Amino acid sequence: MSGIILPIVVLFCLMIFYALPGDKEKEGGAINTLKNRSDIEVMASILRAAISNWEYKTTIMNTAVVSHSQLIRYLAIAVEKGLIEYSETTGLYKTTEAGVKYLSKYEQLLVLLPAIPDLPDLDSVTDSTTQSQLNEPIKDRLFL
Fold it and tell me: Which of 33, 37, 61, 99 has the greatest number of CB atoms lying within 10 Å of its CB?
């Protein structure tokens, strides 16, 4: 009996290791790193999880990859702001039109703002005028 326990434990550990990568692939092919997400990103994940159907808290929590305490906090804010609707009869949640608008604006921001790795390296700037602009205070550049 003890000879079979060790392989089971090893298999379980391997399953945990490979089932919990640092990056999770989400709908649309986007890969989101789950470390240190902003409040806006977490809210967008929660709203996206309940956009198509009425969903239970557990489903939203698993889809948005948030803890239970985060889910409770963000759902309370979303319900208060009218971004998500709660059905007291069924105990389910669904994203409202305001929540869909939030997601639309969030997606527009993602398109407009480059990701941090896409920003130019300030050390590699060779143009002297650009370099001098980087070194002067912003208030001096605003009133040219």
Answer: 99
